[in-house]
Amino acid sequence: MLRIIHQQTEARTELQRICARTHDDQVFRKEATVREILQAVRRQGDTALLRYTADFDHQTLTADELRIRGSELDAAYQQVSRELLDAIRLACRNIEAFHRQRMPKSWVQFHDDNVVLGKRYTPVDRAGIYVPGGRAAYPSTVLMNAIPAQVAGVPRIVMVTPPGEHKSLNPAILVAAQEAGITEIYRIGGAQAIAALAYGTDTIPNVNVITGPGNIYVTLAKKLVYGIVGIDSLAGPSEVLIIADSTANPVHVATDLLAQAEHDPMAAAILITTDMALAETVAAQVAHQLRDHPRQTLTEKAIAHHGVAIVVESLEAAAELSNQFAPEHLELEVADPWQLLEHIRHAGAIFLGHHTPEAVGDYLAGPNHTLPTSGAARYASALGAETFMKHSSLIQYSPVALHKVAGAIDVLTQAEGLPSHGASVQRRTQPGSTD
Amino acid sequence: MLRIIHQQTEARTELQRICARTHDDQVFRKEATVREILQAVRRQGDTALLRYTADFDHQTLTADELRIRGSELDAAYQQVSRELLDAIRLACRNIEAFHRQRMPKSWVQFHDDNVVLGKRYTPVDRAGIYVPGGRAAYPSTVLMNAIPAQVAGVPRIVMVTPPGEHKSLNPAILVAAQEAGITEIYRIGGAQAIAALAYGTDTIPNVNVITGPGNIYVTLAKKLVYGIVGIDSLAGPSEVLIIADSTANPVHVATDLLAQAEHDPMAAAILITTDMALAETVAAQVAHQLRDHPRQTLTEKAIAHHGVAIVVESLEAAAELSNQFAPEHLELEVADPWQLLEHIRHAGAIFLGHHTPEAVGDYLAGPNHTLPTSGAARYASALGAETFMKHSSLIQYSPVALHKVAGAIDVLTQAEGLPSHGASVQRRTQPGSTD
Question: What local confidence, expressed as pLDDT, does residue A179 receive?
């Protein structure tokens, strides 16, 4: 079921096909629907929001019911086990510690002639976090989005998540939110939730940055409101690429592939190995472990359509194929992963060695699990505190410093045909000369 | 002609109107055109590219003529003055020095139980820089985009710019490109150039990040290809907001407002002052300086439609209005700009004191002049070397470290219903137990 490919040209074509699995022209058609939802919420506010919640989530809410009440937040703690709470707290600590590393810091530098240059970092005023409902209602998603916003120092963080049956929300999500310090939570989802966060309604505040994963409608809505607000990224289905040599354990490799495939029928699970025998054993193991897998149908689909094992001549060749794919998650299950790392250019997160399954990073190692997908690792990075921050350049010139550059600026403004640009310097350096 | 407003509610409404001047529903209609151009270039490559260049730029090119030849690059140096070349070189040095400051650096940290965590920064493989033609063909644009890409270490940087009459390009642009180390330049512009950079054609390489300003078609094209490639930002028309107290020189303030307005009829020029007399003198000065302004018509339009002077009670009130507007450029022409800075939360670049006209930053102080517009400074920042870089998270666990977190991961995977995630840890920590 996990196909094995030896031929390099075929491997390249196959990787390109898998990488492009979401760049679908069909997506364009859904944009019309999403645009309509955005416009409706923008113009009618809560009214449209409640109507779409009735239509799509089949829950009839009043505006008063949108926000989760304090009693519901308290009650959630009664519905999660002590073990789960402890695990959430361990994850919180590690995620916070990692995200506090190398935070952007404001700075100024003093140059000759009293010139001061610098950058001043500040958090955004308000952030909105989208947490999917249903099958993909993950407490880890809450932590991976909320904690970086807290570390950035965002004064107001709101969370939205679609209501389930009887207007209910997943208690683990409510507990994770509170552990991350968030208590302003609204039970709305879909493109209408993104619209509310972008434009604001009577009930929902408009925010400056929206982060968090969602289905295709949520992703399209984020793309359309980008420019009005900032967004983290356009999340596609998840993917893992494993580079393994003969030192890898095929049972572990197979399980890691399935741990990706079990997310979603669109998930991708790719093995690139220098060891033909390993590829065969892994393929057999995947089939074996799929036999009584609790999420068999969707996991099988992912493996069948977006799973592949590629056999290559060398680890360098494996790295080059991986760079072309630019995977969200990259596992290096090889004897010397740090040496191989030197050949890797593009990957969202890299898991080194035989004892680092992706799940460690998904939950609690500390680095963010919100990562670039579908080849976006060629230019994009994990979500971080900086997703919720921005900087202002700082420039201060003195009279003598301005005088020294006046000639050069004059020449440049003439070349660009912008007379008042020139005059703004001349009038300061040659008083009375031009007025 | 520069209206003066005293009433705070009116001031807020007016600033909102000016800030939202580009969030126009009309823009949506142009998207259909842009989408068609993107699809055509994606499917037909150079053929479509040449057809659109004939249609929109009225230049009939062959594919061979797309790339600027070495002889044209050499010839450009003969067409610029020694003074302009020197000014470009001064700007290059300052821009490079500033962008080399606080570059993101790769790091790893060693934790207990041989856990290694870190971030590894790498440049993108290929970057594409868009430089507008016609009235807005600015050598400074070239430097402000190309130098950060060079500082980031991008191995291949290509530039595109639309051809003028007789297929010509502005020699100052060609010289600036070469001074910034770029020699791969193509004479294409508009949405078709963005399409070529995003998808690649036989002649133009596809890139990973596209930066640079352009007209509404270019901006829409960048928005539509975002996700296939990274982009710097969606640049709107330029804007300045000046906060001035009674220590400001009204002639300088007026010139600085006009230096913004002369860019574009859509440019915004806003003064917020605590001094009613200053507002009146500035308004009179603006009218006076406009009388024989070489770009009178468009500059007058900008001042009339997107210019305003607001009189407020205090500098704190001025700062709060400025924060709501989140200007691209903010000048603090007050007695103590560093004290006022403490009240500023959102601005692309801040020019402090009486001797720092925006033009200093536009050309050569060092910080980037590609800045967030239309309120985007609430969440976005100047273009920088990091625009052309990304990082990979690094995670390595040891057997003992994995063993210690196995229980917590197990609980979390159960809460999220992802069995293979759990198994990927169990199979490593409890060999033989589950297989």
Answer: 98
Nearest CB among B116, B138, B349 relative to A393 is that of B349
Complex ipTM above 0.90?
yes
Residue B156 forms beta bridges with which residues?
A: B126
Confidence check: pLDDT of A182 > 70: yes
Would the CA dihedral through B425, B430, B434, B435 be positive or negative?
positive
Q: Contact B204/B196 with Cβ under 8 angstroms?
A: yes
CATH number belonging to domain A26-109+119-231: 3.40.50.1980
Rounded mean pLDDT, B364-392:
97
Q: Are A211 and A370 in contact (CB under 8 A)?
A: yes
CA B30 to chain centre: 22
Same fold, B4-22+236-365 and B26-103+122-231: yes
A210/chain B closest Cα distance in angstroms: 10
Answer whether B341's CB lies under 8 Å from B332's CB.
yes
Contact (CB, 8 A) for B103 and B151: yes
Share of chain A above pLDDT 70, in %: 97
The yes-or-no verdict on residue A23 having pLDDT over 70 is no
Distance from CA of B43 to the nearest CA of A (A): 13
In angstroms, what separates the C-alpha of A55 from chain B's closest C-alpha? 26
Q: Residue B203's closest CA among B218, B192, B215?
A: B192
**Residues annotated in a binding site of A:** 130, 192, 215, 238, 260, 263, 329, 362, 416, 421
Lookup result for tokens 């440019």:
B267
Q: Which residue of A has its CA nearest to B88?
A: A412
- What whole-number distance in Å separates Cα of residue A350 and Cα of residue A329? 6
Contacts of B36 (CB under 8 A, 6+ apart): none
Residues B413 and A362: their CA atoms lie apart, in Å, by 10
Q: What is the CATH number of domain B26-103+122-231?
A: 3.40.50.1980
Nearest to A355 among B330, B397, B420 (CB): B397
Q: Is A57 exposed, middle or buried (0-12, 13-18, 19+ CB in 10 A)?
A: buried
Q: Residue B280: what pLDDT? A: 98
> Span A4-22+236-365: which CATH code?
3.40.50.1980
pLDDT score for B137:
78
Clarify whether B329 is annotated catalytic: yes
The span from the CA of B268 to the CA of B327, in Å, is 9
> Hey, what are A149's tokens?
């916003």
Within 8 A of A83 by CB-CB distance, chain B residues are 407, 411
CB-closest option in B98, B122, B405 to A117: B98
Classify B154 as helix, strand or coil: coil
**Which chain B residues have a beta carbon less than 8 Å from that of A90?**
405, 408
CB contact under 8 A, A392 and B372: no
Could you tell me the sign of the dihedral formed by the alpha carbons of A399, A404, A410, A416, in that order?
Answer: negative
Structural domain boundaries of chain A?
4-22+236-365, 26-109+119-231, 397-429
| Tens digits of residue pLDDT in A336-349 | 999 999 999 999 99
pLDDT over 80 at B381, yes or no: yes
Contacts of A226 in chain B (CB under 8 A): 223, 226, 234
Most confident option among A19-28, A218-227, B307-316: B307-316
Q: B68 vs chain A: nearest CA distance in angstroms?
A: 21
Of B252, B391, B402, the CB nearest to A355: B402
Given an 8 Å threshold on Cβ–Cβ distance, is A402 in contact with B356? Answer: yes
> Model confidence over B121-173: pLDDT tens digits?
999 999 999 999 876 679 999 999 999 999 999 999 999 999 999 999 999 99
Annotated binding residues of B for NAD(+), written as ranges, equal 130, 192, 215
Asked whether the beta carbons of A174 and A76 are under 8 A apart, the reply is yes
Q: How far apart are CA B89 and CA A411, in angstroms?
A: 12
Output phi, psi for A311, to 5 deg.
Answer: -100, 130
